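Comment thread on ticket #2218

A.B. wrote:
> Attaching the input chain for the structure job we discussed in standup.
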Amino acid sequence: MTVSGAPARPAPGGSGPRRYWRSRQGIALVGSLAFFLAVYLYPLTRLLAWSFFSPGFTLEHYAKLFAEPAYLRAFRNTAEISVWVTVISLLLGYPLAYLMTAVSTRVRALLIVLVLVPFWTSILVRTFAWMVILGKRGLINQVLVGWGVIDRPLALIYNMLGVQIGMVHVLLPFMVFPLLSVMARIDTALVAAARSLGASPRQAFLRIFLPLSLPGVSAGCVLVFLLAVGFYITPALLGGEGQVTFATLIELVVRDLLDWNFGASLGVFLLTVVGALFVLFSTLLGLDRLTGHGRA
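C.D. wrote:
> Ran it. Output below, let me know if you need it in another format.
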């Protein structure tokens, strides 16, 4: 005796693709795509158009960029500041991330909150705070002069030092969290095994822990460097005439010279450099290394 199954009923709502586009996922996808087109793609298209058309097609603005030494000097300042900020952030962030992996869960949570505190304050407010602290009548100079360490206030602001201090304060979390993410996944049993085989704490760290943490180092350095290249507020407020960066140069060209076409070409050039650097870092380091998911 055979029992025939009931005829399959068509799923409500029509075919699969139609159901998908009527679903919440489809609506969210369309909304995200529209947001991307309106906020990112359209402004970039206008930026490209302004840089190449004035009103007809021309390469004059890009030729002006490479012909004027002042513009290349601003790019050199940007690269120099970005490298130093990356190095200082690594020197400060690596020990902090290492400490966060060595403490208890409760203490680690407290340290994470302390690292996140700067994100709760505007970059502009933090920069003004550093202007007060580093100024000639600021807290640091008043303490040093009051204690007799120095005779007159130090120049801690409107120079390269002030820019680096302010940018490191803002960008340090972008170094700490990639490092912490990778360090937290390192098997501490490997370090313990090295110690049991006669390695000193220093040898175990240099030969076991440090190599395993390099993906976090790579990710943090890439993030901090690329963000530092396009930084504007801190260099504009804490830097002097000799610390003009590419971002502040764009602001001067657009606001003071009212040369929107040349400012657009500067923006396209900076965007191209950042994109090229990201591709270069991804190729040399590998995207799997940047995320810490490289193959064993």
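A.B. wrote:
> Thanks. Noting for the ticket: The chain is about 75% helix and 0% strand.
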